[in-house]
Amino acid sequence: MKVLVTGSAGFIGSHLCERLLQLNDTEVIGIDGFINPSPNETKQRNLKLLLVHPRFRFNQADLRKANLARILDGVQVVYH
Question: CB–CB of 75/4 below 8 Å?
Answer without folding.
Answer: yes
